[in-house]
Design brief:
This protein is an alpha+beta fold. The chain has two helices and four strands; from the N terminus they run E-E-H-E-E-H.
Amino acid sequence: MQVAYVDPGKTLRLVGGLGPLQSLGMTGTMTISFSDGKVKLDYIVGGYPTTDFTQLAPIVDSVLQQQLASFAAF
């Protein structure tokens, strides 16, 4: 992931594919927003999937949820 945009204390935007998405020819934009003590993460993915992406999306979502939970515990 490469940093595409930073608004200190408000927004961090990263561009790139995570894990298996890299080998599938897909990439995404991850936006992490900070507001009122809350963190919001959006990861929008695009490309040409060679597999059924509806099966992969919940796995990626689960990994991101686990990472945010670890961040919250920190």
